[in-house]
């Protein structure tokens, strides 16, 4: 995976994998923090191309990786 996860990397990942709104992306906390540090406000999630992006709070995603989570609606 690319060592620099930025918005362009996320958009390219979404397009390359033909992801739709029934998934979420999860990033390592350090990658997520780098992605959202442009403002002073603390952000818990981000939406890119209709797909929510969250930080991994369970230590499941390695740094510089993007994990795809399937979202199930009831």
Residue share in helices?
10-25%
Q: Which term fits the overall shape?
A: globular
For the largest beta-sheet, the strand count, sense and barrel status come to: 4 strands, mixed
Strand content: 25-35%
Helices and strands: which structural class? alpha+beta
Number of structural domains: 1
| SS elements, strand count | 4
> Count of helices?
2
Strand order of the largest sheet: 2-3-1-4
Q: From N to C, what is the helix and strand string?
A: HEHEEE
Oligomer: single chain
Instruction: Compute the CA-based radius of gyration.
Output: 12 Å
Describe the structure.
- There is one protein chain.
- With 74 residues, the chain is α+β, with helices and mostly antiparallel strands.
- It has one domain (7-70).
- It contains two helices and four strands.
- It has helices spanning 7-16, 29-36, and strands spanning 23-27, 45-48, 51-55, 66-70.
- Strands 2-3-1-4 form a four-stranded mixed β-sheet.
- Strand 2 and strand 3 (51-55) form a beta hairpin.
- The longest helix is centred in the first third of the chain and has 10 residues, at 7-16.
- The chain is globular, with a radius of gyration of 12 Å.
- The N and C termini lie far apart (33 Å).
- The model has no long low-confidence stretch (mean pLDDT 87).
């Amino acid at each position: 995976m690319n060592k620099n996860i930025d918005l362009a990397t996320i958009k390219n990942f979404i397009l390359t994998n033909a992801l739709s709104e029934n998934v979420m992306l999860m990033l390592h906390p350090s990658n997520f923090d780098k992605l959202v540090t442009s403002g002073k406000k603390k952000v818990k999630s981000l939406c890119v191309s209709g797909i929510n992006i969250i930080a991994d709070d369970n230590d499941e995603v390695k740094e510089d990786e993007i994990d795809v989570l399937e979202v199930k609606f009831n």
